[in-house]
Here is the input.
Amino acid sequence: MNIPDELLYTKTHEWVKKINPKEVIMGITDHAQQQLKDIVFVELPSIGKELRAGAACAVVESVKAAYDIFAPLSGKVMKVNQKIQERPELVNNDPYGEGWFLHIEISNPNEFSNLLNQAQYQAICGSGH
Here is the structure.
């Protein structure tokens, strides 16, 4: 299982990468895509949508079921990854690269304190959550 050290994580298996103090990229983790298996469809929010940390912001469908993806931080959707809507398998093949989901302009930098570092996220994955 791949858990890059430079990213931050949520208990619900999303990752966050800071681009600058006001903008992040997010996606789902390697652990999440392994649990989902073959992803066949991704529904992303519209650009400009206001997200609330912990609220559903996207949907991923696998051959097994549909799953909500939760916003790691509050803010506004700046960009969506059109590629994963056309080729959802990118989420399985490259969850931290081409399989990213959204760029978010964050509205509350204090929410970063709710995210997990690599060691904390590894502990959650190891405990079977």
User: Anything to note?
Assistant: Strands lie at 8-9, 14-20, 23-28, 39-43, 50-51, 56-62, 66-70, 75-80, 102-106. DSSP finds four helices and nine strands in the chain.
